[in-house]
Design goal:
Layout: E1 7-11, H1 18-27, E2 32-36, H2 37-45, H3 50-56, E3 60-68, H4 73-85, E4 90-95, H5 103-118, E5 123-127, H6 137-146, E6 152-157, H7 158-163, H8 168-175, E7 179-184, E8 186-187, E9 193-194, H9 203-212, E10 218-221, H10 229-243, H11 256-259
Parallel strand pairs: 1-2, 1-10, 2-3, 3-4, 4-5, 5-6, 6-7, 7-10
Antiparallel strand pairs: 8-9
Helix pairs in contact: 2-4, 4-5, 5-6, 6-8
């Protein structure tokens, strides 16, 4: 494995407050974080300097995450504008409002949302999630085939895909050059989140595949719904150490015992 330049980010879904998430992600040694649109859009509207807060922790924003309806262009534009304003070029979106709908109609709405986002200099990556318009391997492939490859890419959430009974590695390979972002997560049978290596997702094979293709997008460690998120994210990071993918760029980090 010659290429080890994968870029890792931490999803702030692990922590309930933005400032807490920034502090913990930095303390764990991550160079970047993914933030919720709901956390940054109101702050920016109120005139708060979110970029300064991010830079205070020596972080950058890998992406802004939006859970919304792709037909709601105003909401997409607000989130994309927020991404631009926090110096990110990526908007990750879970597609609400189209579950069980016609693929062509969903694709048309996604292309419209992606065009609105691109006009602000931000690329849209669609995110599979249970209960959304994008869950199965078949739905993912169909939507990618029906949308503009210059505007729409995939955010592969390995936990959501595995929890739906699909193989994340096969979905990754299906996506080919349409892969824009990875949400790296492990789950137990039934979908409960867990530390890398404790579940059903083959994290090592996924990272090897990404390294083999010299993937340049963000690989965002995701952990949600656990009692001690800092300890759990630290455990995932330490699994990356054992697999030979950490630290990114020699960034300092603390061991699990130092953040427990």
């Amino acid at each position: 494995m010659a290429f080890t330049g994968l870029r890792f980010s931490s999803h702030l879904v692990a922590w309930p407050r933005l400032h807490q998430g920034l502090a913990e992600a930095a303390r764990l040694g991550f160079p970047a974080c993914e933030v919720f649109a709901d956390a940054v859009v109101p702050r920016l509207a109120a005139g708060q300097d979110v970029v300064c807060s991010v830079h205070d922790f020596d972080l950058e924003v890998s992406a802004v995450y939006l859970d919304g309806d792709p037909a709601g262009v105003a909401q997409v534009e607000a989130a994309a504008r927020a991404a631009r304003d926090v110096e990110s070029t990526r908007l990750v979106m879970t597609l609400r409002g189209g579950a069980g709908g016609d693929t062509s109609e969903v694709a048309m709405a996604v292309d419209g949302a992606a065009a609105a986002s691109a006009a602000l200099g931000v690329q849209l990556s669609v995110h599979p999630q249970a209960g959304s318009a994008l869950t199965s391997r078949q739905e993912i492939a169909a939507l990618l085939a029906a949308t503009d490859p210059d505007l729409v890419s995939l955010c592969l959430d390995t936990g959501q895909v595995a929890g739906a009974g699909e193989d994340p590695l096969e979905v990754l390979r299906d996506a080919g050059p349409r892969l824009g972002v990875v949400h790296l997560a492990d789950v137990r049978p039934g979908g409960a989140p867990c530390v890398f290596g404790d579940g059903i997702v083959d994290i090592g094979s996924l990272l090897d595949e990404l390294a083999d293709r010299e993937f340049s997008g963000w690989v965002t460690v995701e952990m949600a719904g656990v009692a001690d998120p800092t300890l759990a994210v630290a455990g995932c990071r330490d699994a990356l150490v054992r697999l030979g993918f950490w630290p990114p760029g020699g960034r300092p980090w603390r061991a699990v015992r130092d953040v427990a």
